Structures
1.
Amino acid sequence: MSEPLIPAGGHPLDDPVGAALTGPHAHFAERRGRVLRYPPDVTSWVALPPDPQPADWAAAAALAGPGGAVTLTAFQEPPPADWEVVFHAEGVQLVDAGVAAAPHPEAVRLGPADVPEMLDLVARTRPGPFEPRTVELGTYLGVRRGGALVAMAGERMRPPGWSEISGVCTDEAVRGQGLGGGLVRAVAHEIKQRGDTPFLHAAASNTGAVRLYESLGFVLRRRTAFLAALVPGHPAVPAPGHPADTAAVGR
């Protein structure tokens, strides 16, 4: 197992990407020097050390390639001046403080065969980045109506002892029926069954989603920020979507 990037005594959620990639998700890790990332077709997150030096930014650039995107959370310093910042937003990190976790009667497990439908739902609801292999990060649950996937939620980062709930989205046609909240509780149930504690991220501006999560029993642990920047050089790649959950998930 690789050496954690967080300082000794630090909390895993202070750097959830680095903690996950040196912990339960180490088998996904791509490493260059002190920099770690998930494979881009899994998720866009990159982990830099808390005190990034020029050599660390060079390592991140080497991993992403010229014009490639580097997506960070919980960062403390801006990228070098020649990097183009294409996304920057304030966010919140919420943790379980009494979520009434329970299975959902309509929930079905989703897997690789469901990815085309999952990608289509993500495109319609825009909960944040979801890649062809994101489903490999953990349990994903969905609800179907008339055979069509209309809501889902699942797991993304897994720092030791914690599991992030992510990909929470509900088709506009069925919002207001409690599917989003029900699936969050169901994923939380899966997480707690194996002894982990649920947490999640949201854009601070997405007040509807934050209110929903708080009503389910999540509380604010810390404020954070999300940043995506392009490595200097060409060819440029499309800027990534918002790295947190941004869409209204519906109740």
2.
Amino acid sequence: MMKTRLITLLLVAGMLTACNNKETNNQTSNNNMKTTLQLTEEWDKTFPKSDKVDHKKVTFHNRYGIELAADMYTPKNAEGKLAAIAVSGPFGAVKEQSSGLYAQHMAERGYLTIAFDPSFTGESGGEPRRMASPDINTEDFLAAVDFLSVQDNVDPERIGIIGICGFGGMAVNAAALDPRIKATVASTMYDMSKVNVEGYFKSEDTPQQRMEKRKALAAQRTADYKAGSYQRAGGVIDPLPEDAPWFVKDYHAYYKTKRGYHKRSGNSNDGWNTIGCQSFLNQPLLAWAQEIENPVLLIHGEKAHSRYFSEYAFEKMTGIHVEGESKVVSNKELLIIPGASHVDLYDDEAGVIPYDKMDSFFKENLK
């Protein structure tokens, strides 16, 4: 008995030493961090190029060794060390869509920004393609902070992030994990754990319904393994049925038209792998949102079907329940955009994305 207990203590001590000994552990060499990605050099965004910023492609690695592709936007004639912002989302989109648009707008306002493709998506690495992970996709934000922190023209004490749609939830999760993130914006946010566990508006929120999902995903895993390939779940439905819910029509108007279509976007084409979101069923993204000390700004449209995700996140962080109204509690803010839908915050079509508000938020908190 004593011997078993001693072995256990030694194992625990070894694990703690491995995690905490910063003085003696050798760093892993970065010699294998050379880019292997094939990046397009043409301007293939869904938005026009700004003449107020410089643009270039960059790559960086997350802690799983997956190489991520990003567009870097730098204010023209910028001098000194800049505040920086990493942007990603929506869930199933690519950096040539909403995240790049946000990044370019914020660069016009004086920030060095990157819009990155998450792991398994777009021009970024990771196999198999079109998978998602609450852990790895949160890590993608942390890796973006790693990258920005070592740029010669970035002040590592002035880094923020923006997550859009499903990556809004990932951004809040990253903020709960990494205090280097000094300010966080989540725009038109989805909580991917909540929607997978409960369905929309808790329409699938019983143990029996969750078990049916688990059984279906388990069966699909067997089928995929047997086939040697992954079944795709399909992107935004096309052609659009006349009786489609209005928010599906909202998505279609962006992802399936010239307005927002992109050839590398899963939402514009054949979507995620059917089993791609399985791990969201038992890994809640916002478990520690209440312990975020740094400022968070949640932005959502008044008429968005998804508004309740931001309201839920705000309640998790502050303990205050609100519905359909803007609210500020300490350094956490919920901003509701009157009349705006979910997709109105994807691009400049409706002209309602509050870039100036985000600018003032970051200027106040990245100083």
3.
Amino acid sequence: MTVALPRRQRPPGPDAPWVDDVAGRLVRPYTVSKGRTRPSAHFDLMTMVRATGRRPAGLQGPDYDRVLGLCDGPVPVAEIAAHIRLPAAVTKVLLADLVDCGALTARTPSAVSAGSAFRTDRALLEAVLHGLRERL
């Protein structure tokens, strides 16, 4: 019986990340953010970001390009992190870099006023939970 060893492969494209069938992404997440763990601006997971159409001169690399490619319309930080498969903390650092250079705009969700009642829609939460369980 022969056992197939995990292989390293490079997806098509000059800036595509190296991946390993078992280990996953070979460049560790905090290498992408140059070891930074705190963004220069506040983002929560529901902050909406959108590309301005400017291309950042100083920020280059596949991760920045992928983020910009996802931001044609308003997109929440959590969705971007999921698509690029990086921790939210690293994603926030990348997004802050892009906001700082004018390539993205960010808008935080409006806070719920203290006097208003916040209702949780049980059916919506159950549908989200069901969808998450199907993905696992």
